[in-house]
Amino acid sequence: MVNGKPTIVLVHGAFADSSGFNAVAKRLVADGHSVASAPNPLRGLAFDAAQVRALLDSVEGPIVLVGHSYGGAVISAAAEGNTNVKALVYLAAFVPETGESAQALVEKFPGSTVGESLKPVALPDGQVDLYIDPKVFHPHFAADVPAEEATLYSITQRPATGAALGEPATGPQAWHTIPSYNLISGADRIIPPATQEFMAQRSGAKTQLAEGASHMVFVSRPGAAVGLIETAVQEQTSTR
To answer: Is the pTM of this model over 0.85?
Structure first.
C-alpha cells in the first residue's frame, strides 16, 4: 500500500502482456497509487487463476483487481475467497458464469472477428497456441490505436492456448460477492459490445461506455480506464 491506499493489481488478457498497461500504470502511480501487474501465463483458465491467486496472496492490505479481456475470466476465479479483494474492474473483459468459457461468450452475440483473426501454431505437446494474425491486428484488435503502435503490439503479443480460451469457468465466480466495475468498449471487434453489456448487466456492475473504443480500450483510452479504476478505489476502499 501507498499512503494507506489499496494495491491495484493489473491482469492482462490473451494476445498481450503487462506492458500494454504502461499508460494506465503511469497515471495511477502519478496519482499516488501502489500498482502491481500479474503475469498471466495464458495456458489454461484454472492454471492461470492459480498463478494470479498466488500473487494476490502475497499482497498486504486491500486490493483492487483489474482484468482485460480473458484476464476478466482469470480475475473472476482468482479473487474468489480472498477477502482483501475489495473491487473487480473489467476492461473490455469476460465476466463468465460458472460453466461458461471465453469462446462460448464471444459467440453469444454477433459481431466478433476473433475466429477469422486467429493464427494457430501447433505445439510439440499437441496443444495449439493462438495468435492474432498481425495482418489484421490493427483493424480487428486495436482499430483506434495508431497504426505504428498497433504494429508493435502485434509483434510483441503473447499467445493463448486454444485450451485456455475454451476452458469453462469452474467453481464460484468472485463477481457474485465482490463489487464490480465494467468499462465497455463500444466498437469492439473481439468481444462484441452486446456481449459485454450482457455480462455487465448480469453481474450488477457499475458500467461505463467508451464509445468508439476498440478491444484495446485500456491503451487507446487510458484516462477512461484509470477513471473507472479510481472510482472503484474510492467507493470500495476509502471507508473500509
So the answer is: yes
